[in-house]
Design goal:
The protein is mostly helical. α1 runs antiparallel to α3. The protein has helices at about 1-25, 30-35, 35-70. It is built from 3 helices and no strands.
């Protein structure tokens, strides 16, 4: 059960990190920098994925707190 949890959480962490990486790399593209709507969309993606990542971290911490009580 612990191995399944670790495998699942690894996937859940890697997905937003990869999305953030792609969006931030796109912001380095000179063509993208000139397009304010694309910058806005990419910034939104980065923000949303950071929120998602933060939520995953909070879930792991909550589980750790529950285990500590037991």
């Amino acid at each position: 059960m612990k191995t399944d949890f670790i495998n699942n959480m690894t996937h859940e962490f890697k997905t937003p990190v990869a999305t953030i990486m792609i969006a931030s790399e796109a912001l380095k593209d000179p063509e993208v920098v000139e397009d304010k709507s694309r910058i806005s969309r990419l910034a939104g993606i980065i923000y949303d994925e950071n929120v998602r990542l933060g939520n995953h971290i909070e879930r792991v911490l909550s589980i750790a707190r529950l285990e500590k009580r037991n």
